[in-house]
Amino acid sequence: MGCFTFVKVVMVVFNLLICLAGMCLAAVGIWVTVNKDSFIRILPPFTDEFMSHVNVGIFSITIGAVMTLLGLLGCCGAQKESKCLLIMFFSIILIICIAEVAAAIVVLVYSSYTEIILRSWAIPGLKEQYGKDQILTDLWNSTMTTLQCCGFSNYTDFSGSYYYKRNGALYPPTCCAGPELFPCDEDNANFSSVVGCFKQIVKVTQRNVDIVGGVAAGVTAIELAAMGVSMYLYCYLDKKAT
């Protein structure tokens, strides 16, 4: 088996796997969209309320469709030895890589402003909509229960809020550590010193930064390999045509 034939077979098999994975992901997305309740029941408690308000179905269908399209382009391009399909495959992967690099640069450049941006969004929501807007309330309750945190910075985010006034100057139960400190008034909340959710999210992110970095590096390596293989096949066919 020559080098070209070997690379061609690898390209076909690899893209068939991508195509199958994309179709499976799209099928899951359709399942979530059509019968969301049965899908949510198999997930951990944190996602029970969160998933009901996030359109995971559409997201899964979109990503699955893109993966299926890429798989078909790469597979057909290699199998039929089509330079047009191969260059389309290469171009799409290149665009995805550029978008990923641009997103990473934006995150790095504006990481110092992340807390300021999130605070300007979160605090008004806690003050005015928590306890009034059911979707926002459920999302915050899920987050605070799962991460064992209170508010964005701490319990003071709820001081003077709609929830605070409506519940007789009380804070959400998660702001007090332990049932012995109920009712969760200002003294008990202050004594509990439950940290804010932003600090907890940062801790979780830092704890899993190696995993995230490893996954990102793996995805990048696969994308570069796919680009290299498709370009090799394209150049070989172009040379063969001349």
UniProtKB/TrEMBL annotation:
<feature type="transmembrane region" description="Helical">
    <location>
        <begin position="12"/>
        <end position="34"/>
    </location>
</feature>
<comment type="similarity">
    <text>Belongs to the tetraspanin (TM4SF) family.</text>
</comment>
<protein>
    <recommendedName>
        <fullName>Tetraspanin</fullName>
    </recommendedName>
</protein>
<comment type="subunit">
    <text>Interacts with SLC19A2. Interacts with NTRK1/TRKA.</text>
</comment>
<dbReference type="GO" id="GO:0005886">
    <property type="term" value="C:plasma membrane"/>
</dbReference>
<keyword id="KW-0812">Transmembrane</keyword>
<dbReference type="InterPro" id="IPR018499">
    <property type="entry name" value="Tetraspanin/Peripherin"/>
</dbReference>
<keyword id="KW-0458">Lysosome</keyword>
<dbReference type="GO" id="GO:0005765">
    <property type="term" value="C:lysosomal membrane"/>
</dbReference>
<dbReference type="InterPro" id="IPR008952">
    <property type="entry name" value="Tetraspanin_EC2_sf"/>
</dbReference>
<dbReference type="InterPro" id="IPR000301">
    <property type="entry name" value="Tetraspanin_animals"/>
</dbReference>
<keyword id="KW-0325">Glycoprotein</keyword>
<keyword id="KW-0472">Membrane</keyword>
<dbReference type="Pfam" id="PF00335">
    <property type="entry name" value="Tetraspanin"/>
</dbReference>
<keyword id="KW-1133">Transmembrane helix</keyword>
<comment type="function">
    <text>Structural component of specialized membrane microdomains known as tetraspanin-enriched microdomains (TERMs), which act as platforms for receptor clustering and signaling. Participates thereby in diverse biological functions such as cell signal transduction, adhesion, migration and protein trafficking. Regulates neuronal differentiation in response to NGF by facilitating NGF-mediated activation of NTRK1/TRKA receptor tyrosine kinase and subsequent downstream signaling pathways. Plays a role in the inhibition of TNFalpha-induced apoptosis.</text>
</comment>
<feature type="transmembrane region" description="Helical">
    <location>
        <begin position="85"/>
        <end position="110"/>
    </location>
</feature>
<feature type="transmembrane region" description="Helical">
    <location>
        <begin position="54"/>
        <end position="73"/>
    </location>
</feature>
<feature type="transmembrane region" description="Helical">
    <location>
        <begin position="211"/>
        <end position="237"/>
    </location>
</feature>
